[in-house]
Amino acid sequence: MRRRRWDYEDWPSENRRWGVWLAGGTALVAICYILGIWTGAALTRGRSQTTVEYVPPQTGNTTSTSGSLTPIPGVEDTTIVTQIYNRAKNSIFTITAVSGGKPTSSDAEEDIGTGFLIDHNGDLLTNAHVVGSATTVQVSGDNRQFVGRVIDADQLDDLAIVRIPAPKSLQPLPLGSVKSLQPGSLVIAIGNPFELTSSVSSGIVSGLNRSMSESNGHVMNGMIQTDAPLNPGNSGGPLLNAAGQVVGINTLIESPIEGSIGIGFAIPIDRFIQLEPELLAGKPVAHAWLGIEGMDIDSLMQQALNLPVSSGVYVTEVTQGGPAAKAGLRGDSNAAKLNSLSQSANPYAALKGNGDIIVGIDGRSVSSIEQLTQDINQDEPGQTVVLTVLRGGKTLHVRVTLGTWPSGQNP
């Protein structure tokens, strides 16, 4: 008999210190639980972009034509949420990845999430953490069962493609853009929370361009924050706008309990569109890597360490052999002592204050690790950037050739 469990994973939260590999750090976040994974007793975890206007709630049987709503024959009066749900539900699937042994093994565990059809080739988009390390997954939807082949999985962006022999009659969901959203915009989530298939919830956009840190130090930028209730099983499902277009991929929640408290996050669909050619071709996605660990500078840190600025990125440590180290960047000489402190301790007491301070990149000012990360996320491995660095009262311009994020390693 197969054993099920909730898959639980902490997205680290440190008050000041962020490990930066892609761009500089482990983000300042609370514990975030990855959705969509059934693994134990705790919770975890080509197309053109079209900007659309918000479509206000209305009654009457309608469907979408070129971003507008028109009547759906034979459907009774419904709300806009029901209209969008009825159009999208047949293109949304439950994905089950079995790990730890064969499906019939007593050691086997099931990770369950959601995926949705993006083209007529049978390609489903989902989260990488839904499929895990599986090469094939079980897919169900539209009253059918399929064996899905994992074409590609980009763990850092948490995106994966699963291909099934989908009937040509099934319609892929239209892709929109995060540019169609603003705080307060209506959004609709469809997925399989707690294995309740084809469940719909709705809410608004609570915030845009959020940054979330992963446990490996990589920072996901541009995230959509929503109060639409998301729960385990929603991972990999679509977040749709009022025109019925996919604007995000539901991926995680921030919660002190094992369920939604109205703070959920979705990866912007724009990120997938950017990576779509590589993912569909099964090519690995390369991510730029700087190779430092650092802390955001504020007025308290400035005073404690007698720093010359009240904002910027204080480099606590550089990764040996990494791009930053090769370029000559320096960390704090007491970094080893800092690593031994508990999170409740005062980190400033362990620091000597002689680490480099990054205040700019390619002529643009940098005030935080989040900002530095956003810049480097737009770069490619092998690209050279110029960091503006303060060291010993002098301003230096340090050229760094970015590396490729080492897979399977943490900062």
TrEMBL record:
Keywords: Hydrolase, Membrane, Protease, Serine protease, Transmembrane, Transmembrane helix
Keyword Flavoprotein: no
Tree of life domain: Bacteria
Listed name of the protein: Peptidase S1 and S6 chymotrypsin/Hap
GO terms assigned for molecular function: serine-type endopeptidase activity
PANTHER family listed in its UniProt record: PEPTIDASE S12 (PTHR43343), PROTEASE DO-LIKE 8, CHLOROPLASTIC (PTHR43343:SF3)
The PDZ domain, residue ranges: 288-393
Segments crossing the lipid bilayer: 20-41
GO terms classed as biological process: proteolysis
Keyword Transmembrane helix attributed: yes
